[in-house]
Design goal:
The complex is a heterodimer of chains A (467) and B (819). With 467 residues, chain A is an alpha/beta fold. Helix content of chain A is 36%, strand content 18%. The N terminus of chain A is likely disordered. The chains are: A alpha/beta (467), B mainly alpha (819).
Chain lengths: 467, 819
C-alpha cells in the first residue's frame, strides 16, 4: 500500500487522467477503491443479475393468474363468517359481497398453466416462468407492503433488495450504475424508499433513470459545454487533484479521481445505452416500442435488457399503479395492455440471447386483491373493484436458477387463503438471494451493534421454485 | 400423540403430584436456566412461587386448578417446533408433562419458602455504565506541545507508543478548517486577509471566538441535531404530505445553539418543555423534536398501529440521541447483548405514550400584530360567508352521518369510505367528531368545519345547486384565508391524561398486548426516582442528572466526532457492549466532566476542542504512523474530512457570491431536475421551484420530501430521515462527480464565480486565478497550479473560459474537503 501510494505521489505530476485510471486498474488498486467492484457470493449462484418488475399497487391475482370459477357462484353474496372472522382489510368490511371474475382462463404451453385472457403474451411464456399462487405478506397497506417486499421490514430505514444485491455482488459495469431504477406510470407509494441503501453506504442505492431528459440525473454536460470541454475540464480537475494527492497523501483523492473518470465514461455510455438505433425493427416490434399504449413500459423493458448486457447488476422496474379499488375491469385491462407485451418480449428476448439462464426475472406486487368487491360509489355499480388482500396472491419468476413451467402453491376455491405451499415475503427474498449465490442468513451488515440482514430473522429458501 | 397421553392422564388423576420429587426437578433441570434467577427470558421466572404465579410479559402462565388453560402446559406439551418449551434439547417426556399437568390441576401448590437455584444479581461491568471518572491530565514528556488539557491525554497515549504528534497546520488551513467546522462555510477572502494580517499571539483564538459568535454557527450545528431528530418537511410513507410548519422547531434548534443554551436545558425542553412550570412558547415549540416521526396516512392503516410505530421510533430515537444505546433491539425481546429488557423498552415507551400530538399557534416575530389587526374583519367576513347559506345545518347533517358510520359501520358503504379517509387525514379524527360541539376546542371546531367544507362527502347528494353553493363558500373562505395574515404553527406534544396504560407488545407485535408496565427506564443506569410523577419531565431531568454518566459521554463524543471524523468511541450511536471501546477513555470522561461543569455549554466544549494542539495538527498523511494506526484513532494527525452535502452546496454558493445568508424560516425548493418529485405517490408532490433569493439558501433549508429527497443531498450521503442518524457515512461515487460537474445549480455557481473573477479581481490572469482560489479554497494557487490552469484557459473558447475554470476549481477534491 505505502509503496503504491509513494509511487503515485512521485508520479502524480505527469500522468493523464485516463492513464491513471488504467494504472489503478492494472495495479488492482481500483478494486480497493471501488466498492462496486465485482465480488464473489457465498456459493456460485445460477443468477448473475436481477430484473425485478415491480407491479405497484397489487395486481388482481384472480383476474390474471389464479382462476376461481367458484367466485361466479358466490357473486353478490357475503362470505361465510368462518372465512372472514379475523380479517382486517384496508377499505371494505369483511361482509362485502364476492365479486366474480369475468376473465377467461385457458391452459398454456406444455405446462398447461392456466392464465387469463388479459395477459395473452405472458401466457405464451408459460413454459418459461414459475408461477407462485401462494404468496402472502404481513402488510395490507401499500407503503408498509412495499417496504416489507424490498427491505424485509415494514417501516423505512433499512436497505432494499437491490442495495443488498450490489452490496453482495458489486457490479460488472464500469460505465453504468450497478443498481438502476426505471419507472413507468405514476409515482409509487414507496418512492425512493423502494431503492434506498438504508444504512448501507449510499454507494449501493439505486440510481433512478428518468423517462424524460437525462436518463441519469446530471448525466449530460450543462448547455454549452461540449465533449471536448468536458474532457479538458476533467483532465484539469484530475491534474489539480493529483497535485493535491502528492501534497496530502490522502488516498481518498485517488478514489475521487477514479470516480470522475467513471463519471465521464458514464456520460459516454449513457447516450449509447438509450440509443436504440442498432436494435432491429423486429426487436422493437416485439417489445411494442414506438406505439401506444406499450411504448413507455416496453422502452423500459428494452432498457433493462441493454443495462444487464452492459453489466448492471440489478434493474428495478416500477410500474404504477395496479391498485384497482374501483373500475377493475377497465383499469386492469389498461394496465395489461401497457405491460403484457413488453414483459413477454423481455423474457423471450433474454432467452433468445442466452441471457435468461443467468438473469433472474421477478414479476409482482406488494400484495394481492380480495375476492370481495369494493364499491365506492353506489351510483356506479359497474365501477366495482377489489381491496388489498395480503393472505394469498400471485407472482411469477423466470430465469436464473428458477424452475420453468411450474406452478407453486394453491389457494382455496375463492382465492381467499393458501391451501398449499405458502411463500412468505421473506421466503421469496431468501430464494432470490439463493439464486444469486447467497445464504440469506449470512449476507449481513453491522449497524447499531447488530448484524442486520434482508430477511430479518425469517425466511426459508423455497426449493420447489428452484431448477 | 393423544392416544399415548391418555393412559398417562388417567394415571395422573389417580396420583397426587409431588412438587419436590416430580415438579421441582423438571423446573430445575429444564426451565430455570432461561427463566430463573440468572435470566428471565420474556420476563418469566420459575424459580420461586410469587414470580412463577405472576407469569411473563404476556401474562400468567399457570392457572391453578386448570391445566387446560395454563400456557405452561400448552407450551411444554406442544408438538410444534419453535413453540414447544424448552426450545432446545429433547421435549419433556410424557411422564414429566403429566406430572406438571397434575400439579397445576391440583392447584399448583408451591411449598412455602422453596426457591430453585441461585438468585444472581448481575451488575454490569461495561465501561459506559460506570460512573464518570475524574482523571487528572497525565504528565507528558513534550511539555511544550499541549495547549490545553485535551492535549495531555492525547499526547500521553502517543508517547506511550513512541509517536510524535504532527506539525501544526498552516494558518490558512487552520482558518478554513475552523470556519467549516464551526459554521459550515469556508472563510471569505476578507476573513482570510484579516487573519493573515493579525500577528497577535491570540489571533487564532480571536477568529474562533468570532466564528462561535456567527449566526451561521447555529445553522451548522442544527444540521447534526436534525439528523438525530430525523427531521423532514413531509409525513413520510405513501401520502408523504407536506408539513408546512416543521421549520418552526428547526428555528428553535438554530436559536438555541446560537444562544448556547445549556445542553441540559436543551434536552429538557425538547423532551418535556410542555411539562415545565409556566412553559414559554419556545419551550413548547421545543417538544417538536418528537413530532418529526413519520405518519402513515394510507387509508387502511389503523391509528393504533401507526401510533405504535411512532412510539417505537420515539423510544429508539431518544435512546440513540441521549443514551447511545440501541434500545430498538428490545422492541421484540430482551436485548441480546446489553442489559436492556423488553420490559424496560416498554417502560420507556410508557413515558411517551401518555402524551398527545397537537398543533398550536407559534408566531414568529412580526406576525402577531398584523394578525390581530386583521382578525375582527376576517372573522366577520368569514361568518357572513358561512351564514350566506344553511352551512351549519349541512355541517350538522354531515357530522350525524359520519358519527353514524363510526358507531355502526357496514350500514352505508359510502359513508364508511368517508370515515376511513377522515380517520387518516384528520388528526385525532374520531375523538373530535364524537365529542359534543360545545366541548371541542375552538381550534378543533374550526379544523372540523374546514375538513367538512373540503370533504362534504354525500351530504348534499342530488342537490346540485346547494352543493355548488357550498363549493363557492369554501372557495371564498380559502381566498379570504389566503389574503389574511396567518400565524406560524408549531407541532407539539402535550400530556394526555386519558391515555390507556402502556402494555408490553409481546414479540414486539402491537396486536398482542402483554402485561401492563409503569413508566420507567433502564435498571443498569442510576436509579430513576420520579416519586409519584414518572413524567417525561422527570425522565429528561434524569438523563442530564449528575449521577448519569451516559448522557454527557454520548454527547461530547458525538461533538468530538464532528471535529475529527470519528468519535473517541467510533460507534457514536452504540455505547453498548457491541459498540467500540473508547480510544481515549480518560479523555472522554474528562470532556464529559468539563462539559457538565461548564453548565453544559456546547460552545465552550467546541472552543476547547478547536483550540487544542490536537485539533490544530496538520491532516497530511503520515505513512510511518499508518502501519501502527491505520484509522488514525490515536490522533497523530488531523483528518481530511469530506464536507456534508449541505456544506458543499453552501460553499459553492458562497464562493459564487450567490448565498442567501438569511437565518431560519420556512424550507425552500431550489431547482431540481424533472422526474424526481414525480416519483412520489400518484405524482402528488409538487416541486414548485423557489424564486429570487430563496433559490440560494443554505442546504439546511432545502425542503426534505421523505419519499423523494433532493438528489444532491442523497448523492452526498444525507440520511433518509426516517430513523435517528448519529453519524453519516461518507461515500465517494461517480454520481457525486456528475452532480458537481453538471447540476445546473453548480453550473450556475461556476458562472457566478467567473463573473466575480471578471468584476472583482485585477485584470491579470494570475490575479484572477488566485482570487478564484481565495474564494473557493481559502489559499492562493501554487506555481504549478497556475501553469496548469493557464494552459487550460488557453485551450478554452474565450467567452466561456473563466466559467470553465471556475467549474474546475469547484470540482476539485480540495473544494469539498476540509483539511
Amino acid at each position: 500500500m505505502n509503496n503504491r501510494r509513494q509511487f503515485l505521489n512521485n508520479f502524480a505530476g505527469g500522468i493523464t487522467g485516463m492513464a491513471l485510471a488504467d494504472l489503478l486498474q492494472r495495479d488492482g488498486y481500483a478494486a480497493n477503491l471501488n466498492p462496486l467492484a465485482p465480488k464473489k457470493p457465498h456459493f456460485p449462484g445460477k443468477a448473475k443479475r436481477v430484473i425485478y418488475m415491480f407491479m405497484e399497487g397489487g395486481p388482481s391475482q384472480m383476474d390474471l393468474f389464479d382462476p376461481k370459477p367458484a367466485l361466479a357462484k358466490w357473486h353478490g353474496q357475503s362470505l361465510p363468517e368462518s372465512f372472514t372472522k379475523d380479517l382486517k382489510l384496508a377499505f371494505i368490511k369483511p361482509t362485502a359481497a364476492v365479486l366474480g371474475s369475468p376473465r377467461v382462463f385457458t391452459r398454456h404451453g406444455q405446462s398447461g398453466m392456466e392464465l387469463s385472457d388479459y395477459i395473452p403474451n405472458i401466457a405464451k411464456q408459460a413454459d418459461n416462468i414459475c408461477l407462485v399462487r401462494s404468496m402472502h405478506t404481513e402488510a395490507f397497506n401499500h407503503h408498509p407492503g412495499q417496504l416489507l417486499m424490498f427491505t424485509g421490514f415494514t417501516v423505512p430505514g433499512r436497505p432494499t433488495l437491490g442495495a443488498w444485491s450490489v452490496y453482495g455482488l458489486g457490479s460488472e459495469s464500469e460505465n453504468l450504475p450497478g443498481f438502476v431504477v426505471l419507472s413507468s406510470g405514476v409515482g409509487t407509494s414507496g418512492g425512493a424508499s423502494n431503492f434506498s441503501s438504508g444504512f448501507l453506504p449510499s454507494t449501493y442505492q439505486g440510481t433512478q433513470f428518468r423517462s424524460g431528459g437525462d436518463p441519469i440525473l446530471y448525466m449530460s454536460s450543462p448547455d454549452g459545454v461540449d465533449k471536448k470541454t468536458q474532457r479538458a475540464t476533467i483532465d484539469a480537475i484530475s491534474d489539480l487533484n493529483k497535485e493535491h494527492l502528492g501534497e496530502t497523501g490522502d488516498q481518498e483523492i485517488a478514489s475521487r479521481m477514479a470516480a470522475y473518470e467513471l463519471a465521464y465514461r458514464m456520460q459516454v455510455a449513457g447516450p449509447e445505452l438509450i440509443d436504440f438505433s442498432n436494435e432491429s425493427q423486429a426487436t422493437l416490434d416485439m417489445y411494442g416500442i414506438g406505439k401506444e399504449p406499450t411504448n413507455q413500459f416496453s422502452t423500459n423493458c428494452l432498457l433493462a435488457r441493454r443495462l444487464i448486457e452492459r453489466g448492471t447488476r440489478f434493474v428495478l422496474m416500477m410500474h404504477a399503479s395496479w391498485d384497482q379499488h374501483t373500475n377493475l375491469n377497465k383499469a386492469l385491462k389498461a394496465n395489461c395492455e401497457k405491460t403484457d407485451q413488453g414483459t413477454a418480449a423481455l423474457i423471450q428476448d433474454l432467452k433468445q440471447r442466452g441471457l435468461l439462464e443467468d438473469t433472474l426475472i421477478v414479476w409482482g406486487g406488494e400484495f394481492g386483491r380480495t375476492p370481495m368487491q369494493e364499491v365506492r360509489n353506489l351510483m356506479d355499480p359497474d365501477g366495482a373493484g377489489r381491496d388489498h388482500h395480503p393472505n394469498a396472491y400471485s407472482m411469477f419468476l423466470a430465469g436464473g436458477g428458477i424452475k420453468p413451467g411450474t406452478v407453486i402453491g394453491e389457494t382455496d376455491d375463492l382465492g381467499f387463503t393458501i391451501t398449499k405451499d405458502p411463500v412468505g415475503v421473506h421466503d421469496l427474498q431468501a430464494t432470490i438471494l439463493h439464486t444469486l449465490g447467497f445464504d440469506h442468513t449470512k449476507l449481513t451488515y453491522r449497524f447499531m451493534g447488530r448484524d442486520f440482514r434482508l430477511t430479518d430473522i425469517h425466511g426459508e429458501v423455497m426449493r420447489k421454485m428452484l431448477a | 400423540m393423544r392416544f399415548v397421553l391418555l393412559p398417562l392422564i388417567s394415571l395422573s388423576l389417580m396420583q397426587a403430584a409431588n412438587f419436590a420429587t416430580d415438579v421441582q426437578p423438571v423446573l430445575a433441570k429444564r426451565c430455570i436456566m432461561c427463566h430463573g434467577g440468572a435470566q428471565q427470558i420474556s420476563g418469566l421466572r420459575l424459580d420461586n412461587a410469587a414470580d412463577a404465579m405472576k407469569g411473563g410479559y404476556s401474562g400468567p402462565i399457570i392457572v391453578a386448578g386448570n391445566s387446560a388453560t395454563s400456557k405452561l402446559i400448552e407450551r411444554i406439551a406442544s408438538t410444534k417446533d419453535g413453540f414447544r418449551m424448552p426450545p432446545s434439547g429433547p421435549a419433556l417426556n410424557p411422564a414429566e408433562i403429566a406430572a406438571l399437568k397434575a400439579w397445576v390441576d391440583e392447584g399448583a401448590v408451591w411449598p412455602a419458602g422453596v426457591t430453585i437455584g441461585k438468585s444472581v444479581t448481575k451488575k454490569s461491568t461495561h465501561w459506559a455504565f460506570q460512573p464518570l471518572q475524574k482523571p487528572s491530565a497525565p504528565a507528558v514528556k513534550n511539555t511544550a506541545w499541549p495547549r490545553n488539557s485535551i492535549d495531555n491525554f492525547v499526547l500521553a497515549t502517543l508517547e506511550a507508543k513512541n509517536l510524535k504528534p504532527a506539525a501544526e497546520a498552516s494558518k490558512l488551513t487552520l482558518l478554513r478548517r475552523a470556519a467549516l467546522d464551526l459554521t459550515g462555510l469556508p472563510p471569505t477572502p476578507e476573513q482570510t486577509r484579516a487573519f493573515l494580517a493579525d500577528n497577535r499571539p491570540d489571533a487564532y483564538e480571536r477568529i474562533v471566538d468570532e466564528l462561535l459568535r456567527s449566526p451561521h454557527y447555529g445553522e451548522r450545528w442544527a444540521r447534526q441535531w436534525l439528523d438525530l431528530a430525523r427531521y423532514a418537511d413531509t409525513d413520510g410513507f405513501e401520502k408523504d404530505l407536506p408539513r408546512q410548519h416543521s421549520w418552526r422547531w428547526r428555528n428553535y434548534v438554530i436559536d438555541s445553539l446560537n444562544f448556547d443554551k445549556p445542553f441540559n436545558q436543551f434536552t429538557i425542553e425538547q423532551l418535556a418543555g410542555d411539562q415545565l412550570p409556566n412553559p414559554s412558547l419556545e419551550q413548547k415549540v421545543a417538544t417538536g423534536f418528537h413530532r418529526n416521526t413519520l405518519i402513515n396516512r394510507e387509508a387502511g392503516v389503523t391509528r393504533a398501529e401507526d401510533r405504535f410505530d411512532t412510539l417505537v421510533n420515539r423510544v429508539s430515537t431518544t435512546s440513540t440521541t441521549w443514551m447511545g444505546l440501541t434500545m430498538g433491539c428490545s422492541q421484540c425481546h430482551d436485548h441480546k447483548y446489553d442489559p436492556i429488557s423488553q420490559k424496560e423498552f416498554y417502560s420507556t415507551m410508557a413515558l411517551f405514550s401518555n402524551s398527545f400530538d397537537t398543533d398550536m399557534d407559534a408566531p414568529v416575530p412580526g406576525e402577531l400584530g398584523p394578525w390581530l389587526a386583521a382578525r375582527p374583519a376576517y372573522l366577520k367576513k368569514r361568518q357572513e360567508l358561512l351564514n350566506s347559506a344553511p352551512v351549519s345545518t349541512w355541517f350538522a347533517t354531515w357530522q350525524d352521518k359520519m358519527r353514524a358510520a363510526v358507531t355502526k359501520p357496514g350500514t352505508d358503504i359510502e359513508w364508511d369510505f368517508s370515515v376511513t379517509s377522515f380517520r387518516v387525514m384528520f388528526d385525532h379524527a374520531e375523538k373530535v367528531l364524537m365529542m359534543p360541539a360545545e366541548q371541542r376546542s375552538e381550534r378543533d371546531q374550526n379544523r372540523l368545519l374546514s375538513y367538512f367544507l373540503s370533504n362534504p362527502s354525500h351530504t348534499l347528494r342530488g342537490e346540485k345547486e346547494k352543493a355548488d353553493n357550498l363549493k363557492e363558500i369554501r372557495d371564498a373562505i380559502r381566498k379570504l384565508d389566503e389574503e389574511n395574515p396567518k400565524l406560524t404553527q408549531a407541532y407539539v406534544i402535550i400530556p394526555d391524561p386519558s391515555a390507556p396504560p402502556q402494555r408490553i407488545a409481546v414479540r414486539g407485535d402491537w396486536k398482542t398486548p402483554g402485561i401492563e408496565v409503569q413508566p420507567g427506564t433502564l435498571a443498569v443506569l442510576p436509579e430513576f426516582k420520579p416519586g409519584d410523577d414518572p413524567t417525561r419531565l422527570a425522565f429528561a431531568k434524569w438523563l442530564v442528572n449528575d449521577a448519569n454518566p451516559l448522557t454527557p459521554r454520548v454527547i461530547v463524543n458525538r461533538y468530538w466526532q464532528e471535529f475529527f471524523g470519528r468519535g473517541l468511541v467510533k460507534t457514536s450511536e452504540d455505547f453498548g457492549t457491541q459498540g467500540e471501546k473508547p480510544s481515549h477513555p480518560e479523555l472522554l470522561d474528562h470532556l464529559a466532566n468539563q462539559f457538565r461543569e461548564s453548565n453544559w455549554s456546547v460552545k465552550q466544549l467546541h472552543k476547547s476542542i478547536v483550540l487544542s494542539a490536537t485539533y490544530r495538527q496538520s491532516s497530511k498523511a503520515r505513512p510511518e504512523v499508518e502501519e501502527i494506526d491505520p484509522d488514525n484513532a490515536l490522533l497523530a494527525r488531523q483528518q481530511r474530512l469530506r464536507l456534508s452535502a449541505e456544506s458543499i452546496r453552501d460553499s459553492a454558493l458562497l464562493a459564487a457570491g450567490l448565498l442567501n445568508t438569511k437565518i431560519g424560516g420556512p424550507s425552500v425548493r431550489p431547482p431540481q431536475p424533472k422526474g424526481v418529485s414525480e416519483l412520489v405517490y400518484g405524482n402528488s408532490a409538487k416541486w414548485i421551484e423557489s424564486t429570487g433569493p430563496d433559490k440560494y439558501r443554505r442546504g439546511l433549508y432545502t425542503f426534505f420530501q421523505r419519499t423523494a429527497p433532493y438528489p444532491m443531498l442523497t448523492n452526498f450521503d444525507a440520511p433518509d430521515m426516517s430513523v435517528s442518524c448519529s453519524r453519516r457515512r461518507t461515500s465517494n461515487t461517480p454520481l457525486q462527480a456528475l452532480n458537481l460537474l453538471n447540476d445546473p445549480v453548480f453550473f450556475e455557481a461556476a458562472g457566478a464565480l467567473a463573473y466575480r473573477l471578471q468584476t472583482e479581481a485585477p485584470a491579470g490572469v494570475e490575479d484572477k486565478i488566485n482570487y478564484a482560489f481565495d474564494l473557493a479554497l481559502g489559499r492562493p494557487a501554487s506555481a504549478r497550479e497556475l501553469t496548469r490552469l493557464k494552459r487550460f484557459l488557453d485551450e478554452q473558447p474565450q467567452d466561456t473560459a473563466w466559467t470553465s475554470l471556475a467549474r474546475v476549481i469547484l470540482n476539485t477534491d480540495e473544494f469539498i474537503v476540509r483539511e
